[in-house]
# Entry
Amino acid sequence: MQTSQHVLFERSEMKDRHLVRKKIREHIANRAKLPILIFPEGTCINNTSVMMFKKGSFEVGGTIHPVAIKYDPRFGDAFWNSTKHSMMTYALNVLTSWAIVCNVWYLPPMVKEEEEDAVHFANRVKAVIAARGGMSVLPWDGGLKRKKVKESFKEEQQKKYCQIV
# Structure
């Protein structure tokens, strides 16, 4: 990873986030450098929906070149459900699959509009990707599959539910 200029960081460290944002801005400013590949969901999910994008990728400016990627499970399923299968079982399934096929769509470049904040821009890009891939848009963080849900998030959802009832 060091030879290909990866930028590694610990998401929970605020100092790391600021450093990454600075490195990305410097990279974008240098026209001689290749574009940066970012996976804004921060995780892989089950190929049916697009989860919440991390806003940091959309705060740095520059042009976003969205790409929709969707695996075709007819010949082999690339999704690993780590709660059901061990890494060895997953590896065996992938290695014995007929093929791992995925559709890739390169979408038109997108730029943040003047009145947009990073979250709205991220949601607009996410909606375009989901529509092209035929997936649903979900407002949840994909990292929830590995972490406990914050109490504040639960309370917010409970308040919304109470308002409906």
Remarks:
- Residues 37-164 form one domain.
